[in-house]
Amino acid sequence: MSFVCLVTIQTSRSESAIWSLSRTSGDWNTAANWTPATVPNGFSDAATFGFSNLHDISIEGFVIVRQITFTPAATTAYTITIQPTTLMFNNILTIRGNGIANNSGVTQNFVAKGNALGYYGSITFGDSATAGSETAFTTFGAAVAGEGGFGGFVTFESTTSAADGSFTNNGGLVAGGRGGAGKQISSMHLPPAIPP
Fold first, then answer.
1. 148-166: per-residue pLDDT in tens?
2. How far apart are CA 186 and CA 28, in angstroms?
3. DSSP code for 32
4. Which of 20, 50, 45, 14 shows the shortest CA–CA distance to 32?
5. How far apart are CA 56 and CA 166, in angstroms?
6. Count of C-beta atoms within a 10 Å radius of residue 50
7. Which of 16, 81, 98, 178 could crosslink 67 through cysteines, CB 3.0-4.6 Å?
8. Rounded distance, CA 77 to CA 104, Å?
9. Could you tell me how far CA 168 lies from the centroid of its own chain?
10. Which of helix, strand or coil describes residue 162?
11. Which of 123, 118, 111 is nearest to 87 (CA)?
């Protein structure tokens, strides 16, 4: 009698990458802008920024990463902008895990905008992510008035930290438009009620 044992090993696919010196555009979601040619967009992914000739990066859609790192070679400030969409969904950069590590010695910028259609870009920190040091976050208000218009915003969930980040929330771009915002979402655990 013989036994055959098959062992399969399942690995999680990581899409961590470095912003390329020879990128084709400022679009985060273009694989050719990264080395290796893959887009960091997953729970275990990390995005790294060093020396580059292009420092204005645009995010459209949903992007999630574990960490964003600026190396000492990132001697010119980057600006990562979460654009408002023209579709029925909002664009979100979510950082869950380690957060932002800025080792560049230069303030790195993150921007979340609103638009005239009422949509917005947002930045969300989750789990234990931190905004790091020498980081600047700017939100811009709605470009449309009324209940349907939202500005960009930054959200901190769970045990996240703003650390030494700088935050600027700008007002609405039109009369009656909502301003940019920041918010902290915490969970509260109450003991069970004691019956009478």
1. 567 788 888 888 888 889 8
2. 30
3. G
4. 20
5. 19
6. 17
7. 98
8. 9
9. 16
10. coil
11. 118
Asked if the bond preceding 36 is cis, omega within 30° of 0, the reply is yes
Q: What does the block give as tokens for 32?
A: 């050719």
Closest listed residue to residue 68, CA positions, set 137, 141, 151: 137
Q: For 51-99, how does the pLDDT look when each residue is reduced to its tens digit (9 = 90+)?
A: 998 999 999 889 999 999 999 999 999 999 998 876 666 789 999 999 9
Residues 6+ apart with CB under 8 A from 88: none
Q: pTM score > 0.70 for this model? A: yes
Choose among 14, 111, 117, 107: nearest CA to 59.
111
Rounded CA-CA distance 25/17 in Å is 16
Q: Which of 17, 6, 21 is nearest to 51 (CA)?
A: 21
* Domain boundaries, given as residue ranges, for the chain: 52-185
Burial class (CB in 10 A: 0-12, 13-18, 19+), 1: exposed
Tell which wins on pLDDT, 172 or 181.
172
Residue type, 132: G
